[in-house]
Specification:
This protein is mainly α. The chain is built from 18 helices and no strands. The chain has three domains: about 200 residues, Hypothetical protein af1432 (Orthogonal Bundle), CATH 1.10.3210.10; about 140 residues, no CATH class; about 60 residues, no CATH class. About 0% of the residues have low confidence.
Length: about 425
């Protein structure tokens, strides 16, 4: 059976019904149309100038949010197809998973969360849902309200990494993939977006926090991609030498940031297992084409290793079908630890560097000052869509949300430019 046939009319439903396409238009499935809408969204283009780990301007090799999202999408698509679910859904969720990130990544998110307490907080995943269902202009309902890209229920549900509002979120702890501390509660919807959230979660257990399988695939693909690729970027940047690791120091970071319960013996065994990979380097990286090719082969092999282990474990846990709420993804303990070890290597050698921590301090100050000046100047300083939201707001909380939405939409470079322009005496 084609995986598409496993999804019913409710899965394919859109919040606003759409007429059939012209008879001479190319025939596409509803989920292929969803993917195209995310690919063509303005928010997707902005990801090219948003921080992943090291800033986009720091080197023309390192990943930015867009290249990271493309790599996550490839991993998600391949794993979804292997499981027999609809690959377009998982791929679209992966392409969209970082759309809500503000300038300077989790570092900027932390500032916006602090400044938006009076309007319901800020969280990158909740902002992604807001973009997909409100801010990214494509479709309006009969009452004249924007419903964003008007994606299908199954795709929107797959994009929801944290399917609960802020009041149900757990206390933050640990760190993000970019090394910044988790000080923001993880949630997936703002209170004023609960209407569409309730619609997209139809089919899930009432009030439950369970993610659909496609969202689980997206989340794992994100974990796999940044664990492997952050190490690759660090090696090329000269910050990581895989042939000269200091396990004791790395294990301290792994426990502090990711798996506090893992002991040295367990982590030693995990690293020994990774080193059995044929492509694990035995000589130092020297920036030659041969070294670059060997590093690329290592990243490919590690991705295959992780996804293969998850596929086998998931199949062993049940008969399927492996989609929506009929099954859950199974990630073996060893795979979780292997991913954590790679994250720990990148964290220890790249994310704790003094030059990076100083830059993060400057970024937080810039975002804080930018929000303050925009809140003071109001609609006349905002782009037209956000100025319209400011004028339509009925209270200060709504006007603050318009400012937060505007700042969150900016790239790293445009945030710097706006800050310079708006704080200039001539502005």
């Amino acid at each position: 059976m084609d995986s598409l046939d496993l999804y019913d009319d409710a899965d394919r439903e859109r919040l606003v019904p759409e007429p059939p396409k012209r008879v001479d238009a190319p025939v596409r499935t509803p989920f292929e149309r969803d993917r195209a809408r995310v690919v063509h969204a303005a928010a997707s283009r902005r990801l090219a100038a948003k921080t992943q780990v090291m800033g986009p301007q720091s080197d023309d090799f390192v990943r930015n949010r867009l290249t990271h999202s493309l790599e996550v999408a490839q991993v998600a698509r391949d794993l979804s197809r292997a499981l027999g679910s609809q690959p377009d859904i998982a791929e679209t969720a992966a392409l969209a998973h970082d759309l809500g990130h503000p300038p300077f990544g989790h570092n900027g998110e932390r500032v916006l969360a602090e400044l938006s307490e009076d309007c319901g907080g800020f969280e990158g995943n909740a902002q992604t849902l807001r973009l997909l269902t409100r801010l990214e202009a494509k479709t309006f309902d009969i009452e004249g309200r924007s419903v964003g890209l008007n994606l299908t229920r199954a795709t929107l549900d797959a994009c929801t990494k944290y399917p609960w509002p802020r009041e149900q979120a757990d206390a933050p702890g640990g760190v993000h993939s970019d090394g910044s501390p988790r000080e923001v509660r993880k949630f997936g919807v703002y209170d004023d977006d609960l209407r569409v959230f309730g619609w997209l979660r139809e089919g899930a257990a009432a009030g439950g926090r369970r993610r659909c399988l496609e969202a689980q695939v997206m989340d794992l693909a994100d974990d796999v991609a940044y664990s492997v690729h952050d190490v690759e970027d660090g090696v090329v940047a000269g910050r990581i030498a895989l042939t000269r690791l200091d396990p004791a120091a790395v294990w301290a970071t792994v426990r502090d940031w990711y798996v506090p319960e893992a002991d040295d013996a367990e982590l030693d065994a995990v690293l020994a297992g990774l080193r059995t990979q044929d492509s694990w380097p035995t000589s130092p990286y020297d920036a030659s084409r041969r070294s670059l090719a060997a590093l690329k082969n290592l990243t490919s092999d590690l991705i295959g290793r992780f996804c293969g282990a998850v596929q086998h474990a998931t199949f062993a846990a049940g008969d399927g079908p492996f989609l929506r709420y009929a099954a859950d993804l199974v990630v073996p303990r060893t795979t979780q630890l292997e991913i954590a070890v790679l994250k720990g290597i990148a964290a220890h050698y790249v994310m704790q560097a003094d030059d990076r921590l100083a830059a993060m301090d400057r970024q937080r100050e810039l975002v804080m000052e930018l929000v303050a000046v925009l809140a003071h100047r109001g609609a006349e300083a905002l782009q037209r869509p956000y100025a319209d939201d400011w004028h339509a707001a009925s209270d200060d909380a709504g006007r603050l949300r318009a400012v937060i939405d505007q700042v969150a939409s900016l790239t790293d470079a445009s945030a710097v430019e706006w800050h310079h322009r708006l704080r200039s005496p001539r502005a």
